[in-house]
C-alpha cells in the first residue's frame, strides 16, 4: 500500500528508518532536536530516539562537521545537518579538505561513513545568502559523494543508501520541495547511489535534470508533446557517482541533450554532463548540446525576480526546441 | 626588532615519578631528537621532498603526553607531527619511509611528512589546516564516550591555532558536551615568522581562552618531561573518569626554523640561546642527579642511534610506491571511479 507523503516527512521517515536499524547512527545539528529543524523535517525524532542520539549543537558549523568526522572515523555513523547549504561555506575546510581527502592521504586507514544533510536551492524568496544551489561545489572535489533527490520515495531510498555507504555523502534536500508530495510504499526502502532514473521515455531529446528541476522538466515534456516533440526525462539523482551510462544510452537514442540546472551557469554540473556526451556520444548527435541554468548571478529575493531567473518550464521548452531544430 | 622572551626559571620541585617511567620519558626524548636530526639531514640531502616541520627542542611534550596515555587512546596532531606519531609507538622506518615517499611509508607515500597517520597506534592523523583537527578530535572523543570505551583523545596544536575560529568552536563544543579530550598547545612563542604575542589579545593564548570556555586549564614547562608527564596524567585521568575536557599550554621553543631549511634567523639570538640552554635533553642530568645508572642511559642512546640508522637505510632502500597507488583509496571500495 502506497501512502502520499511530503518530501519533508520523507526526511523524517528516512532518518528514523536508519536510526531504528543501526544504533551507531546519530543525528546532530542546530535546532534538530526539540525544534525539529527549521524546516520541521526532523520533528518527532527526538521523542523516538532521545537527546543522546538526536542532539542539538551550538551554531558552530566547523564543530558540527568535525564532530561528525571524528566520530565516523572511530565507529559511529553520524548524520550532520547544516541548516542551509549556503552555510557550507563556513565549514568548507571540513568538507573539502578534511573529509574528502583523509581516506586517500592515509591510504585507506581512515573510513568516514557519514552523511551531511542540508537544505539547498532557491524558490522560497530567501535572497542570495539562503538560496544557493551548491551541488556543483561538492562535485568538484574528489572524495565526496553528492546526492540530490527529487521526490519523497527517492529521498528515503537514497538517504538509506547514503547512511549505509562507507564514504562521506553530501545529501542535498532541495528546500523548495519540502511541501511537495509523492507516493511511498510501506516498509524499508533502500536504493543505490549513482543510479539515474528515466522518469519519462521519449525519442527526440534527452532532458537531464536534478532535484527541483525534475518536475519542471516533466512539465516541459508535456508541453513539448503537444508540439509533437517526444522528450525523455532523466532524473540524475546523484552527481557522484554519476550514472553516465544511462545518459549516454539515452542520447544515443534521441541524438539531442538538454541539461536543466538550478545552479548558476559557470561550471554547473551540466557542463560536466555535456562534455561527457560530447566526448563519448559525439557521432550520435543531431543538435547543439544545450544547457538551461540560472544565469550567472546571485539569486534575488523578490518573487517576481526569483521566478524570472530560475529555469522555468518555458525556458526548458525553448531549450529543447533549440536542440531539436 | 622583536623583544626576546626568556624561559621561566626551572622549578626545583621534584615530582613523584617512578624510575621506570623516567627512563621511558628519556628514551622517548632521545628517540624523537635522533629522528628529527636525521629528518633534517635527509631534507638537506634532497631525500625528504616537499616540506617538513621538526619538533627539535619540543620533544618533551610529545614524550610526556604519550607516556601518560593508554595504548588505545587517540591522538590528533598537526603537520609538525613526526614526534607525536613516533611517541605513540609507530616504528621509525614507517615514518621515515613516508617522509621519503616510499612504499614502506606509514601511508604508503600518499600522506607525506604533514599527514602521518597510523590508526592501529591510535594516531588518527596529522592535519595541515590550522585548527581543523581540534574539531575532528572532538568527534573521536564523542564517539569514545558513546561507545563507552574509556578512551581519551589528545589533540596537539601550535600557539598560532588559538586565533582561528575552529579552535574557539572546538573548545566551546568540548565543554558543552563534556567530552573526554585533552587539548595540548605547544606554545613555542612563534607561529611561522611572527611572534604569537604580537597578534594575540591575551597573555596565554591557549590557557586564557580555555578558562573562559570553562575548561580545566594549566600552563606547564614544556621542556620538562616530568612536568609534562605529570600534568598530562592528571588531565587524561580526569577525562577518563568523566571529568570533561582540559587544556594544557606547554611553553617551549623550536631550536630550528619553522619548516624546510628555514634557519629561523628572524628570532633574537639571545632568545634562541636562552631556550637552547633549556634543552629537554638536559633531563639526562636530572636522571644522573637522581642516582640513575649512566649505563642505562647510554644503552638508550645507543639503541636510538642504531634504530635511526637502520630506519634511514631501510627507507632509502625501500621501493617507490607502485604507480597504481595514485588511483587507490579515494573511496571505501578501494577505487577512485566517479562514474559508471
Ligand atoms: C588555516 C591555515 N592558515 C595558515 C596556514 C599556514 N601555516 C602553516 S603553519 C603556520 C604557523 C602555525 O604556527 P603555530 O600554530 O604556532 O604552530 P607551529 O608551526 O609553531 O607548530 C601557518 C601560518 C595553514 N596551514 N592553515
- Strand share of the residues of chain B? 5-15%
- Give, in order, the helices and strands of chain B: HHEHHEHEHEHEHEHHH
Look at the helices and sheets of chain B and give the structural class.
Answer: alpha/beta
In CATH, what is the class of chain B?
Alpha Beta
* Total of helices of chain B: 11
Quickly give the structural class of chain A.
alpha/beta
Number of alpha- plus pi-helical segments of chain A: 11
Please state the second-level CATH architecture of the largest domain in chain A: 3-Layer(aba) Sandwich
Distinct small molecules bound, one entry per kind:
thiamine diphosphate
What descriptors fit this protein?
heterodimer; A: about 325 residues; alpha/beta; Rossmann fold; 7-stranded mixed β-sheet; 5-stranded mixed β-sheet; 11 helices; about 40% helix; B: about 350 residues; 6-stranded parallel β-sheet; about 10% strand; globular; binds thiamine diphosphate
Walkthrough of the structure:
The complex is a heterodimer of chains A (325) and B (340). Chain A is α/β, with parallel strands linked by helices. Chain A has 2 domains: 2-185, Rossmann fold; 197-324, Rossmann fold (3-Layer(aba) Sandwich), CATH 3.40.50. Chain A has helices spanning 7-21, 45-53, 61-72, 92-105, 135-139, 152-164, 212-226, 244-254, 269-280, 303-309, 313-324; strands spanning 2-6, 25-29, 54-56, 77-84, 115-120, 145-147, 169-174, 181-185, 197-200, 205-209, 231-235, 238-240, 257-264, 290-294. In chain A, strands 3-2-4-5-7-6-12 form a 7-stranded mixed beta sheet, with helices on both faces. In chain A, helix 8 (244-254) crosses helix 9. The radius of gyration of chain A is 19 Å and the shape is globular. In chain A, 58% of the residues are buried. Chain B has a single domain (19-309), classed as 3-Layer(aba) Sandwich (Rossmann fold). In chain B, helix 1 (19-44) crosses helix 2, helix 2 (59-67) packs across helix 8 and helix 5 runs parallel beside helix 6. A 6-stranded parallel beta sheet of chain B has the order 2-1-3-4-6-5, with helices on both faces. Chain B has 340 residues and is of the alpha/beta class. The longest helix of chain B has 26 residues, at 19-44. In chain B, strand 5 (216-221), helix 8 and strand 6 (246-251) form a beta-alpha-beta unit. The mean pLDDT of chain B is 97. At the A-B interface, helix 3 and helix 4 of A face strand 2, helix 5 and helix 6 of B. Bound molecules: thiamine diphosphate. Thiamine diphosphate binds at residues 80, 128-130, 158-161, 186, 188, 190-192, 258 of chain B.
Amino acid at each position: 500500500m502506497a501512502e502520499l507523503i511530503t518530501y519533508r516527512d520523507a526526511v523524517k521517515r528516512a532518518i528514523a528508518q536508519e536510526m531504528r536499524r543501526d544504533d551507531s547512527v546519530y543525528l546532530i545539528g542546530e535546532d534538530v532536536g526539540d525544534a525539529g529543524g527549521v524546516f520541521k523535517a526532523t520533528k518527532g525524532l527526538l521523542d523516538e530516539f532521545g537527546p543522546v542520539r538526536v542532539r542539538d549543537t551550538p551554531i558552530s558549523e566547523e564543530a558540527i562537521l568535525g564532530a561528525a568526522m571524528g566520530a565516523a572515523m572511530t565507529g559511529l555513523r553520524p548524520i550532520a545537518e547544516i541548516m542551509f547549504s549556503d552555510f557550507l561555506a563556513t565549514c568548507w575546510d571540513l568538507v573539502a579538505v578534511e573529509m574528502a581527502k583523509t581516506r586517500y592521504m592515509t591510504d585507506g586507514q581512515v573510513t568516514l561513513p557519514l552523511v551531511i544533510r542540508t537544505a539547498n536551492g532557491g524558490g522560497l524568496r530567501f535572497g542570495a545568502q539562503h538560496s544557493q544551489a551548491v551541488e556543483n561545489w561538492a562535485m568538484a572535489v574528489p572524495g565526496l559523494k553528492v546526492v540530490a533527490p527529487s521526490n519523497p520515495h527517492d529521498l528515503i531510498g537514497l538517504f538509506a543508501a547514503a547512511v549505509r555507504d562507507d564514504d562521506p555523502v553530501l545529501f542535498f534536500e532541495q528546500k523548495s520541495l519540502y511541501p511537495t508530495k509523492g507516493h511511498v510504499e510501506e516498509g524499508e526502502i533502500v536504493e543505490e547511489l549513482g543510479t539515474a532514473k528515466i522518469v519519462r521515455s521519449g525519442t527526440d531529446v534527452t532532458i537531464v535534470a536534478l532535484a527541483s528541476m525534475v518536475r519542471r522538466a516533466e512539465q516541459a515534456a508535456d508541453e513539448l508533446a503537444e508540439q509533437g516533440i517526444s522528450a525523455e526525462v532523466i532524473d540524475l539523482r546523484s552527481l557522484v557517482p554519476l550514472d553516465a551510462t544511462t545518459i549516454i544510452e539515452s542520447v544515443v537514442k534521441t541524438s539531442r541533450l538538454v541539461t536543466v540546472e538550478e545552479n548558476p551557469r559557470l561550471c554547473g554540473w551540466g557542463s560536466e554532463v555535456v562534455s561527457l556526451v560530447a566526448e563519448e556520444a559525439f557521432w550520435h548527435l543531431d543538435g547543439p548540446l544545450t544547457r538551461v541554468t540560472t544565469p550567472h548571478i546571485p539569486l534575488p529575493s523578490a518573487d517576481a525576480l526569483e521566478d524570472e531567473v530560475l529555469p522555468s518550464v518555458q525556458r526548458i521548452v525553448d531549450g529543447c526546441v533549440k536542440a531539436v531544430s | 626588532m622583536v623583544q626576546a622572551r626568556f624561559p621561566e626559571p626551572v622549578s626545583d620541585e621534584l615530582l613523584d615519578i617512578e624510575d621506570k617511567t623516567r627512563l621511558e620519558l628519556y628514551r622517548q626524548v632521545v628517540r624523537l631528537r635522533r629522528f628529527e636530526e636525521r629528518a633534517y639531514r635527509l631534507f638537506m640531502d634532497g631525500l625528504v621532498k616537499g616540506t617538513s616541520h621538526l619538533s627539535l627542542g619540543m620533544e618533551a611534550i610529545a614524550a610526556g603526553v604519550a607516556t601518560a596515555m593508554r595504548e588505545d587512546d587517540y591522538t590528533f596532531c598537526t603537520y609538525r607531527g613526526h614526534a607525536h606519531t613516533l611517541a605513540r609507538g609507530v616504528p621509525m622506518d614507517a615514518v621515515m619511509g613516508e617522509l621519503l615517499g616510499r612504499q614502506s611509508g606509514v601511508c604508503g607515500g600518499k600522506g607525506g611528512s604533514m599527514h602521518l597517520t597510523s590508526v592501529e597506534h591510535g594516531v588518527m592523523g596529522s592535519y595541515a589546516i590550522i585548527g581543523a583537527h581540534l574539531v575532528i578530535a572532538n568527534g573521536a572523543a564523542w564517539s569514545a564516550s558513546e561507545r563507552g570505551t574509556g578512551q581519551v583523545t589528545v589533540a596537539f596544536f601550535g600557539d598560532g591555532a588559538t586565533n582561528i575560529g575552529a579552535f574557539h568552536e572546538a573548545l566551546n563544543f568540548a565543554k558543552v558536551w563534556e567530552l573526554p579530550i585533552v587539548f595540548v598547545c605547544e606554545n613555542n612563542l612563534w607561529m611561522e615568522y611572527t611572534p604569537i604575542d604580537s597578534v594575540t589579545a591575551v597573555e596565554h593564548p591557549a590557557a586564557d581562552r580555555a578558562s573562559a570556555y570553562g575548561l580545566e586549564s594549566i600552563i606547564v614547562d614544556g621542556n620538562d618531561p616530568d612536568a609534562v608527564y605529570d600534568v598530562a596524567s592528571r588531565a587524561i585521568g580526569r577525562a577518563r573518569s568523566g571529568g570533561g575536557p582540559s587544556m594544557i599550554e606547554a611553553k617551549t621553543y623550536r631550536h630550528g626554523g619553522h619548516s624546510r631549511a628555514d634557519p629561523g634567523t628572524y628570532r633574537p639570538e639571545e632568545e634562541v640561546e636562552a631556550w637552547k640552554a633549556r634543552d629537554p635533553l638536559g633531563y639526562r642530568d636530572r636522571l644522573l642527579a637522581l642516582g640513575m645508572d649512566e649505563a642505562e642511559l647510554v644503552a638508550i642512546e645507543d639503541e636510538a642511534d642504531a634504530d635511526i640508522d637502520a630506519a634511514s637505510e631501510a627507507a632509502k632502500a625501500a621501493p617507490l610506491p607502485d604507480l597504481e597507488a595514485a588511483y587507490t583509496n579515494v573511496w571505501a571500495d578501494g577505487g577512485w571511479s566517479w562514474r559508471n
